[in-house]
Amino acid sequence: MSASENTVHDLQRSLLGLMRQNNRAGRVVVAVDALEVEAAGAFADAFAAAVEHEETAVFRVAVADGAPHARERLIAPFRAGEAFGPGDIAPADAVLVVSGRFLHTPEVRGLWNFSVWLESNPPIGTPRPELPDAEKHYLRTTRPKAAASVIVENSDPAHPVQVFGDFC
């Protein structure tokens, strides 16, 4: 591996630093959104491990598409220091890492202090598969690339790359 090659560990540390620029302490909620729920979960697990490495309490939750009831059952109790999820209680400084699909809809995007949009592209020369209508609608109307705090190209999960979208 060359010195310039990006690894999951390197990127996770970098993203954690970005998150910490605006969220140094307190109960912080991070969303990892992707069309592929397994990719979102794996990336969220790696991010949670980076948080744990800095010796901050971290909790991981996977939510259903669009995070129904997340505000009442998960986020509000987490932030208040009350029992949430399976009965966990977060200390004053903690990070809740949520993974799933459709986490940048207007109904839930304000719940996250920091969010990641994971993109995954097929190998060069391979045709892009047709997306289901719900996914096409989400991408067209919600524009998760514009709503996310950061965009990560995750076609090679061992070597994800942060993408800097230019919206000029």
Low-confidence stretches: none
Helix count?
A: 5
Helix-strand sequence: HEHEHEEHHEE
Q: Main beta sheet: strand number and arrangement?
A: 6 strands, mixed
C-alpha termini separation: 35 Å
* Gyration radius, in Å: 16 Å
The average pLDDT is: 91
SS-derived structural category: alpha/beta
* Strand composition percent: 15-25%
Large-scale geometry:
globular
**Helical content band:** 25-40%
Number of strands: 6
Task: Give the strand order of the largest sheet, numbering strands 1, 2, ... along the chain.
Answer: 2-3-1-4-5-6
Features:
globular, alpha/beta, 34% helix, 5 helices
Description:
Helix 1 packs across helix 2. This protein is globular. Strands 2-3-1-4-5-6 form a six-stranded mixed beta sheet. The mean pLDDT is 91. It is built from five helices and six strands; from the N terminus they run H-E-H-E-H-E-E-H-H-E-E. With 168 residues, it is α/β, with parallel strands linked by helices. 34% of the residues lie in helices and 20% in strands.
Describe the secondary-structure layout.
Layout: H1 8-22, E1 27-33, H2 37-53, E2 57-62, H3 70-80, E3 94-100, E4 114-119, H4 133-142, H5 144-147, E5 150-153, E6 161-163
Parallel strand pairs: 1-3, 1-4, 2-3, 4-5
Antiparallel strand pairs: 5-6
Helix pairs in contact: 1-2
